[in-house]
Amino acid sequence: HDGWQLGSRRTARGDHTTSGAQQQGEGMDEITLRPCADAPLEVLRDFHEAIFPVRFEYDFFSQLAAGRLHTLGAYSGEDAQLIGIVVWDFVTSAQADEMDGPLLSRLVGSGVAPGGLALYIMTLGVRVDLRRRGLGRRLLQECMDSAPARAGGGCGHLHTL
């Protein structure tokens, strides 16, 4: 595990924490992984706009802030600053058609039982100055670990730009 040791601890809330000594690189305080549903909409919007080369609709951020999409944020230090995020949902082939067209639907359909759901990762990003330290990998792994109970056939898709 480059940059992360097995054994990050889970807090009573279900958050995951890892001390800076377990992470690769300088300037990494304690990192807490937790859902972003309690984060202000503006924080989620500003973070996405700083990291991703596309602009998302307001509805996307209102769904994030309301907890309608699954989120996991990486928060650093005592001020709990958002430094990384993964956003996902579980979709059917028909929903995949609406989002990304028939090609994704055929791919999703190939691994999902009729009426089943597939993991669909919408965004995954880490603050630019903290990349290449294993944080994105950790967010992705936590997301994937949460999926087996909901996603049929172990099928998952990462939306890329």
Give a quick precis of the structure:
The two termini are 26 Å apart.
Question: Would you give an account of this structure?
Answer:
With 161 residues, this protein is α+β, with helices and mostly antiparallel strands. It contains five helices and seven strands. A seven-stranded mixed beta sheet has the order 1-2-3-4-5-6-7, sandwiched between helices. Strand 4 and strand 5 (81-91) form a beta hairpin. Helix 3 (93-100) runs antiparallel to helix 4 (102-111).
Radius of gyration, taken over Cα atoms and rounded to an integer in Å: 16 Å
Helix run count: 5
* Count of DSSP strands: 7
**Unreliably modeled segments:** 1-14, 17-26
Strand content: 15-25%
The end-to-end distance, rounded to whole angstroms, is: 26 Å
Mean pLDDT score: 74
- The largest sheet has its strands arranged as 1-2-3-4-5-6-7
Instruction: Please identify the structural class as seen in this structure.
Output: alpha+beta
User: What is the element string, with H for helices and E for strands?
Assistant: EEEHHEEHHEHE
Structural shape:
globular
Biggest sheet character:
7 strands, mixed
Q: Could you estimate the helical fraction of the residues in percent?
A: 25-40%
